[in-house]
Amino acid sequence: MADIFLSYAHADQAMAEKLCRALEAEGYSIWWDRQIPGGAEFSKDIEKELQSARAVVVIWSKHSVQSRWVRDEAGFAADAGKLIPIVVDETQKPMGFKQFQFIDFAHWNGAVDAPAFLEISRALKAKLTGAVDAPPSSFESAPAPRRPVTTLLIVAALAVGILAGALGFYQWMGRPTPVQESAGPAPQTNDGPQQASSENAIAVLPFDDFSPQGDQEYFADGISEELLNVLSRIEGLRVISRTSAFAFKGREASVGEIADALQVSHVLEGSVRKAGGAMRITAQLIDARADRHLWSATYDRPLTAENIFAIQDEISQSIVQELQGRIAPSADAAAQTASTDAYDAYLRGRALTAKRTVDDITNGIAELNRAVTLDPDFAPVHSALVEAYIYAASYAGLSFDQAHVLAGPHVERAMALAPDAPQSLAAKGRSLAVFEGDNVAAIDFYERAIAANPNFSDAHRFLGLAFSSLLRADLAKKEFEIARRLDPLSSVILANLFRTNWDLGDVDAMIFLAQENMRLYPDSIFGRMTLGDLLREQGDYAGAHRLYKDNEAQTGITRSQLADLYADIGRDDLAAPRAGWRLQAVRLLREGDRRRAAALAHNGSPPEAVAILRWAGEREAAYAMIVQDIARRDLLSAQTQITARDQAFDIYYADILRGQDDPAADIYRARLADHFGGRAPADFQLRESHYAGAMWRMMNDDPEGALRWLDAFIAAGHVMPEMALEPLFDSLRSTPAFAALDDRMADNAARYRRAIEAQLADPEPGWVSP
Prior knowledge:
By secondary structure, the protein is an alpha/beta fold.
């Protein structure tokens, strides 16, 4: 075990290496994540070293203060009384560590006789030897507060443990490039509610259930969420969304720590007691900055829906009086119901569908439909059913056509009952986008929902999804970042940001977001999905497979990522039961059955259908679909971008349009020329870029250039079975150079196949059988 554990952000790796060399020269042993061996269990490794080290040196910088895992390691060290903090720039001390006096390494040049290094040497001597004659170190001018170790769970699931694996996954893959932890999502923009400031920002924590039977948790949660919804309509007040506010449920964390993690100034907490025909609701508003109660109240009322809504209004008005000195608007009548049973069913249904498992979605939809039966004029339940049916199609095996039929009447009813309510507007936009593929029209409804409630994080997220579908990645990223400020601990939003940064080709941001999602939510399907996609992108098929299999076991349904992975490694027998129409069509094409493959594509949606039709030789049909897609998604707009995940489709569209002498071909070719012109494979880090770059070279009659791009693609460990179908490579297939590349790609697939077959031979408990 090492004397010293070094905690730092990877953007500060140069400083970390310099400090390590100097301390090792003084005879100290140091552990840091560069020492994680390939194949190690990272979480156990890091936690063990952190616990066993006698001193923990934390390098604070503008990068590391944003890192929750550095903060968690520092918090653990402070609790254990072995923290030695240094600072390497002019950054402000992070919350929770302001009582420590840091050692200033901002101008240290590496010399062991420099004042900063002499200071840390004295501090280490005191920590490691307990020598009483060691001069007191300035960093310990105040004793460290003894916080409970469980506060390390504030941002969920002990970062030092589970996500240490993500910290080391470059070593996991045997790659020398360090993870750039600091390269997270781009700096926050100046758009959106209240931005990064915590002034006039509030989190509504889940109310406690004090009912005699302890069976009213869903009701307590529902009251909290409804209060959150009422408060979110107040102009100038930033309200943290449900996902993030509820992330602290059941955890031992102080109000101050929660407020710090969510960047809010105030916290509302309370409890609910429901027994027979009576209820008691208590609430208290806390100024987290001053750690004082501003207001509290207890409401003992008969259990009626009217009283529930009246209490929500009273609480919200009291809060606004405290924060702003003016009364909050009352809730719209359409957002209320006179039926206590309808409201109860609505709360149950929302709580169940939010879990996104097959059984919970099914039961949640049943509860929501029961609420509709009890009160058909209760507008919010209709909006909730629209999203529930979308969940059912996404996670519970319902077809999107069936979901459309079932959701349609509820969209229209929500809009008829509450046409200006943000939930109704968002539901209408979701129906247009998801069921009709009309994201252009959906944008208007999302923007109206945001205008009605700027704190509506889901509306910002839906708007981001619409922009993403329209290949406007910059605009999508902006909306996802606003959504994240309103809901900073949402696994779904982190996954959305991951994919948008993938579209933008920002690998550093992808790494950060995949790590962050898995660190916060190691059991989330979204956390595993994003990290799995990243590992597959980086060539770690076995690591990706394990995560995809865990997701399959959790959700009870198959995932397209798993089917694609099996197809890549040549295990069509495993891919087939999980394959959607696209993979089925690819299999038919490889078997030479173009007619049946094209028939499947005619029922699909572009751009995947265009790819299949093009490979099947149905260029006229592909062209007709492209023309419709361009019109539907406004793809000739100046805001449309070439995105990393869709580069191959841009090539397909350009190729088909050129063959039809369509003027739109010139727009596509100009974009591609701007994207690839004057750039080499080394300028791109993602596999789709290398593959699309090779096709672009063939479109420009440069076979030698195409071979160079394919060489980079295969040298990075990638596999693309569809390469055998690509007509742009037909003239290369007979060349020895192309055959050699094909053999190397087969070797990649065989290597991954062996690793995955070994996992399947010794499966994890709960995995779905092959």
